[in-house]
Amino acid sequence: MTLKYSLPLLAILVANSAYADDEFDYSAAPSASGADKQDKTWKGEAELGILVTTGNSEATNINGKLNIVHNMDKWRNTYLLQSLYTKSDDETTAEQYSGAAQGDYKFNDKEFWYIRGAYEKDRFSGYNYSSSVTSGYGSRVWQTEDGSFLELSAGLGYRSNEVDKDSDDYEEGDESDRGVITRLAGKFEYDISKTAIFRQELSTEVGLEDGGSISKSITSLQANIIGSLAMKLSYTIQYSSQVPTDTEKTDTETSVTLLYSF
Question: Considering the domain boundaries, does residue 3 fall inside one?
Answer without folding.
Answer: no
